[in-house]
Amino acid sequence: MIYDAKTKLYGVFGHPVGHSLSPLMHNSAFVHLGINAVYLAFDVEKIGPAVSALRAFNMGGASVTIPHKVSVMDHLDSVDPLARAMGAVNTIVNRDGHLFGCNKDGAGAVAALGGKKALAGKNLVVIGSGGAARAIAFAAKECGASLFIVNRREDEAQARALADELLCPFTLLGQIDNLPCDILINATPVGMTPNEGKTPVDKSFFKPHMKVMDAVYSPLETRLLREAKQAGCQAVEGVNMFICQGTEQFALWTGQDAPIDIMQSVVYKALGNQEKNL
């Protein structure tokens, strides 16, 4: 790819962002489709100046990650109503100088789980109440799922507040066995490297009809997913949510269908190499 004065700039704003696989994923897609664009990682401590730079450089858009998903909303021209309800933005689109914010984390989770029809009418249990849990829960409710919010006692107040917003039940993690469950989603960091030996639920909870997804994608197969597979459940790796939200962003920015196979291939290869080097 030859970069010139017409190259469109995209990026991810976060702190830190050195670990991000988004540049690899999006740049591979740009090259594959012959799009004159580049995606870079910007480690920014203050989101306001970063958004001002996006305007000044006429960037095509940006991904937004921790810790800026909430504060970025104050610097945009408009925010999607669903993202506003979630309380977080992870995608900025530059529409001829108008900066529009939305959240594709939830859409990525829905796509990874098989789409809206796969969630409609299903009992969906979300463990967690942070940013990822909020995005997933709001998106799942939009699909017609019957939601249950679950969390530890120490995070009970935040989880109850989320359940109240969504008009759905809240249950403490220790009482999860009492819930009907078709789809279980772990939206907490439990099981993430370097704590691969941990899991949010006991393997006795799993039933063969369940679908289980872990938002954690390092390691690729968490203990939660490994034990779910052993119980006969369908396991959905967290990396699929990451890739699917990336394809949603790509389509918004470029107006073209994302080459999901290419994006998936480079991300899986990178994560596999990382695990080999641990």
Total domain modules: 2
Number of helices: 10
Structural class of the secondary elements? alpha/beta
Name the average pLDDT: 94
CATH H-level homologous superfamily name of the largest domain: Leucine Dehydrogenase, chain A, domain 1
The biggest sheet amounts to:
6 strands, mixed
How much of the sequence lies in strands comes to: 15-25%
Distance between the termini: 32 Å
Tell me how many strands there are.
12
Q: Are there runs of 5+ residues with pLDDT below 50, and where? A: none
Structural notes for this entry:
- α4 packs across α6.
- The strands form two sheets. The protein has a six-stranded mixed β-sheet with strand order 2-1-3-5-6-4, with helices on both faces. Strands 9-8-7-10-11-12 form a six-stranded parallel β-sheet, sandwiched between helices.
- The protein is built from ten helices and twelve strands.
- The protein folds into two domains: 134 residues, Leucine Dehydrogenase, chain A, domain 1 (Rossmann fold, 3-Layer(aba) Sandwich), CATH 3.40.50.10860; 130 residues, NAD(P)-binding Rossmann-like Domain (Rossmann fold, 3-Layer(aba) Sandwich).
- β8, α7 and β9 form a beta-alpha-beta unit.
- The protein has 278 residues and is of the alpha/beta class.
